Amino acid sequence: MKKLLFPLVIFALLAGCNRPAPPAPAAAPDWPDIPQVASYNIEVTLDADAKTLTGHETITYLNTTDIPIPDAVFHLYLNAFRDQNSIFLTESGTARGYAWDAGHPGWIEVTGIRLADGTPLTLESIEDGTLARVQLPSPVPGGESFSLEVDFRAQLPKVFARTGFFGDDFFMIGQWFPKLGVWQPGSQSAVEGWNAYPFHANSEFFADFGTYDVAITLPTGYVTGATGLPVAEKDNGNGTQTVSYHAQSVIDFSWTASPNFRQTARTVNGVEVVYFYLPEHSFTVERALDAAEAAVTYFGEWYGAYPYPRLLVVDVPDEAGGAGGMEYPMLVTAGLEDFTGLGIMKGEFDRMLELVTVHEIGHEWWYATAAFNEAEEPWLDEGFTDYSTVRLMGKVYGPYDAVDAGNVKLSYQQMRRMDYLAFPNTPMYGKAWDFNGLAGYGVAAYAKPALALTTLENILGEETMLEVMSTFYQRYQFQHPTTDDFRLTAEEVSGQDLDWFFDGLVYGDGALNYSVSAVDEHSVTVMRQGELVIPTEVEVTFSNGSAVLEPWGGGGGEQVFTYPDKTVIRAEIDPGRKIVLDTQWSDNGLSRRMDIWSWLAINTRLFYQLQNWMLYWGGL
Ligand SMILES: [Zn+2]
Asked: Whole-prediction pTM value?
């Protein structure tokens, strides 16, 4: 998910109109060839009037560990929206600025569960009902699979936290079917066994890769889009149609439906990039496709090619912003986020549309394929994605990549810096529910990691950083990498001890402010405030016009550099502004009060420089 901290962020999106669902592709595409661990064959019917789902699924789970599996643990995410007592609603009340509507709750109920041979099983609810468990008749050994037949029905909530309906005919359907947790040995996880937590307000998702075959029955006239490729559509002759999708090597399946969607597409590096938009947002078509093309192109270049044949970007209605700004495999939702919170900008004066689109597509690398545990280590998926967003936006949209409207100019990095400066003493590492409230979580998972990884890049250099990131991605694509895996890769590839990054920034809650505290004739004193230490450099300029760059580890609170044979004019810490986490930049440089001769020396030099410059540009 995308969670901007900027004041009262509001998403605005739309659903628009009337063309039939896309045709099935001509040739069978290549899907990533990996073990299909958790596979789902689902038939579901949407009652568009009642806003309900009725479904049946066959789940097949492969035990890839050597620990026998005695039971099965499911997520029933929609129960987070059943009533105010759920863990989710107790913790949040609102999600992303949108409130739960007690008049339109959401829930899911398993109406039948049995083994493939018909043996009935008994489902027991866990905690607030967002988890449930069945005992298997006998443990499933490593290397073997088990299958379950599950009947379910669900009430969709009015959209506020990613999923549900809006108005009469807009549906964004995520976290909607009974879904297994991840079976893991203790060596790979905080818990041995089923890694599955109740649905917390800040936590997102964690799942195994598998094959999804999903047949959706809904009223005719609806345009559908989903994870996967559309493979069949049938008019049932009774006012309904059935649209079937297939996906492989994905960790989730979400879908959207509205009779109002219009669609357009562009092929980018062999990937079909499709944009579903609402007619009132037709002005976003080129912008959304341009942003999506940039994301698929650059992230592919930096980290590794987008691995699926199709990518769908979904627009959402202005008033259903809770559905916008979300990522699923092969499907992201965007929208016209209005950071004034007043709904007045409508995407005309800012690049929130591009930001959200790029961020969510970034998750196709950092979530959908490098499938982090978003509950246990949320900083990884949001942080890597937001860092990638900062990087791409600056590269493609220039220095004012967030807002460039008249006198109002703002970069996305500046926005993240403002977020960070409000709560600089926040560690990045923690489980999603360790962070109280939007601010702490937003800084921990988004703003601080984006700035920390940018700082890491500035210190390692672009080439080394890209090698770190691409090596990490290639190594852990289609796996569940952890913070430790990233540390091993980053230190190995860079050949550096990165304690300052991991101990200082990931696990630590210290902040830093570097400043020049004194510039005397023959010495410079620099100082660090705060617990955080990041290696930097000090540029010292002398009266003869020369300068030196002094490395400074920053470890001591204060350091004096002396120059008995030279006259110091000026000193500046971190002159390249590499440490974008420095809490105050205004005190990074200091000039000495000069005597008249130094002043004349410098200004005479400046005068000649200025004269040369004018002559040059004047063509004289
Ligand atoms: Zn996100």
From this structure: 0.90
